[in-house]
Amino acid sequence: MKSQWNLYRKRYLPDEIVHLKDDIILYQDEQCIVTSWETLKPRKDIKRGISAYFTGEGIKVSKVFNARNEVAYWYCDIIRTEKIDSSLIFHDLLVDIIVYSDGFVKVVDLNELGQLLSAGKIDAAFVSDALTKANRLLSLIYDNSFGQYQAFINKFDQ
Predict the structure, then answer these.
(1) Whole-model pTM above 0.85?
(2) Domain ranges for the chain
(3) What's the CA dihedral at 116, 118, 119, 124 to 10 degrees?
(4) How do residues 58-114 score in pLDDT, each as one tens digit?
(5) Three-class SS state of 2
(6) What's the rounded Cα separation, in Å, for the pair 99 and 61?
(7) What share of the chain is helix, strand, coil (3-state, %, to 5)?
(8) 14, 27, 59, 98: which could join 106 in a potential S-S bond, CB 3.0 to 4.6 Å?
(9) Which residues lie below 8 Å from residue 96, measured CB to CB, with a gap of 6+?
(10) Which part of the chain is the DUF402 domain (predicted)?
């Protein structure tokens, strides 16, 4: 695997590509990249995080910290990874899953998936990919297997 990548996040709502130039790569192998980051814009609810992009599984799992450096929640993005030369572009497939410390699970942004499908900005294959990956992750969460991701990311929380 390439020693250093330029990382980008492709969003569809709003339609933008953001260069994650300030993210620090902590670890990488053929199936995973772990980064640490601070919020791109100041926020009151969160300050920083550690994210693991599990490219083969199509998910990004982030340990998100509040301003007091406490874990606010675990945020999971459903993604598709595109490699172009020295760049990795992480396409946000719109479906997000939040796991709180008390075990509560929240699925968000499904309305965006429907909105963009209705507008013709994404196709049925995009929706199928997003929902299949989200279902796989939810099954792991409901089977109490999400801890494997948390334990892996916790190794980088120094």
Answers:
(1) yes
(2) 6-155
(3) 70
(4) 999 999 999 999 999 999 999 999 999 999 999 999 999 999 999 999 999 999 999
(5) coil
(6) 10
(7) 25, 45, 35
(8) 98
(9) 75, 76, 77, 78, 107, 108, 109
(10) 11-145
